[in-house]
Amino acid sequence: MSCIDANIESDVRALEGLSVFVAYNANVDAIVQIDDELESYLERPAAPGEEPPPSPLDSKRDLAAAITHAMAAGRGDEIAMTDAFAGTLESEFEPDSQQLGGQTGIMTNLASLLGASPIMYTYLLSDRQISAFRRPRAVRYPSVENGRVRFVPLDDAVNTERTKINWVFEFAVGNELFDVRATENTRFIAASRPPEFDLHAGDLDSQIDQIGEAVDGALLAGYHNLSSEHLEGSYERTHRHARDVIRRLRSGGELPIHVEYAVTHDDDLRASMYEVILPEANVLGTDTRELALLHDDAGLDAPKERPTEETPFEATEILTHYRMLSALREDLGVDCIRLHAMQYHLAVMDSYLPPESIRRGLAFAAVNAATKAARGDVTAPDDLETGLAYEPSTMGRDAIQLLADHVGEPTDDGTLCTPTVVACPNRVVDDPAGTVGIGDVVSASSFLLELAVTDGIEGEP
Fold first, then answer.
1. Considering 280, 283, 298, 311, which has the largest number of Cβ atoms within 10 A of its Cβ?
2. What is the pLDDT of residues 97-113, one digit of tens each?
3. What region, left, alpha or beta, does residue 94 occupy, with left being phi > 0 and alpha being psi -120 to 50 degrees?
């Protein structure tokens, strides 16, 4: 890191020796750019861009409807595929590129690249997936032998030849598919749902307290990866088992746990996650669409002026986001909810960690997000110089100033830092090399750094 900014170098140094448990959903992303070849493969839907996509996706026409709907709306989306259609795509279509995917895969990869010591669990671990990690030797996997958990190299944990594949269809402003033009730079994900992704981890579930004793925190995701056709019993029954595992994980003390939320179009699945899983988190990570879904699912009073992604950004949106986050945090009873929006990152909390730790985490996340957007991937700490080249968003600063005036607190260099709300401008890349995984990068980098500096691990206070 000889040429990296001194503040970023201090942040990266703070992560050395930080041990974090990351679970459950890792896969390989098959990346496809919207073009004529894709259009010739798919089948034209009845009302491109207007027709609500079915769930799960079961045909080329279903997939075309889903992609064009996301393009017209100008927002990212994810819908599960049936097993049969997932097999069809994998056998018939070639992606433009492949990379490590899934929230757990992306967050683990970043943690290892930044010098932390991740312990990752996922259900299917193939040689193909291991080859997608940038630093596979820096990642360990929990193995249970005679009631004791050992942390083994990924190469020693391969348990299948199969690989979970998610298809990521990326589009930029102006891209067209079946005469529908994209209004934003984002992506649609057609997600596979293997039966193994059922939130059961065999012997590890009963011994997971041993992991809790060995790590500084946990990044958990994948609670939306359930499929009713693969379950015995209800979503709630499966989520109750997963809730018991979370409680066992932290049974040895106050282990900080971050749960990364994700969209699912299954109303019953979302309701079960809200009631059973989310209240177990110390920190909940969301984007703007996920926040709106959570707010609606909770039945909270609708904001008078609801922010949308279809209209140009207005600074006053931050006030609505703040109110929605505050109401959700109180309803769920969690310590902190963090929002990653295009122009700013915002955290609402109650006696979670020192506000300065959260501020440093959000500022670090903005650099990581810009690096990911500009380069398509973060491959080493030195890459963060790329993110620093993008200035903090002026629109983000203006919005944060409105929020600061609303709560009666001052800003410092465009950031707001109080015991109950912290906000930091994002660093926006107008022409991103890729969009998938940026939210996961934000959540992982902010959570890791705030843990590191709070616990007094090497780095500036």
1. 283
2. 999 999 999 999 999 99
3. beta
CB 338 within 8 A of CB 283: yes
Partners of residue 166 on adjacent β-strands: 29
- What is the Cα–Cα distance from 193 to 177, expressed in whole angstroms? 26
22: amino acid identity, one letter: V
CA dihedral defined by 137, 140, 144, 145, rounded to 10 degrees?
40
- For residues 343 and 205, what is the distance between their CA atoms, to the nearest angstrom? 39
Instruction: Specify the 3-state DSSP secondary structure of 387.
Output: helix
pLDDT value at position 455? 64
Count the neighbouring beta carbons within 10 Å of the beta carbon of residue 173: 14
Q: Is the dihedral of CA 318, 319, 320, 321 positive or negative?
A: positive
Only one residue has tokens 């109750």, namely 240
Residue 107 tokens, joined = 């967050």
Please report, in angstroms and rounded to a whole number, the separation of the first and last CA atoms in the chain. Answer: 20
**Residue for token digits 């190469």?**
155
Domains of the chain plus CATH, in order, are: 6-26+102-162+194-282+352-390+427-454 (3.40.1190.20)
CA distance 334 to 339: 14
Q: How many angstroms separate the CA atoms of 318 and 307, rounded?
A: 9
- Nearest C-alpha neighbor of 436 from the set 194, 166, 223: 166
Provide the token pair at 400: 């944060």
Residue 98 to residue 168: CA distance in whole angstroms: 9
pLDDT in tens, 296-321: 999 998 776 666 555 568 899 999 99
Would you say 166 and 191 are in contact if contact means Cβ atoms under 8 Å apart? yes
Residue 373 burial (10 A CB sphere; 0-12, 13-18, 19+): buried
Closest CA to 454 of 353, 373, 361, 329: 353
Interval 391-424: pLDDT, tens: 999 999 999 999 999 999 999 999 999 999 999 9
pLDDT value for 307: 64
Q: How many CB atoms lie within 10 A of CB 251?
A: 12
How many percent of the chain have pLDDT more than 70? 96
- Helix axis angle for 6-15 and 438-454, nearest 10°, is 80
Mean pLDDT of 438-455: 94
Contacts of 135 (CB under 8 A, 6+ apart): 109, 112, 113
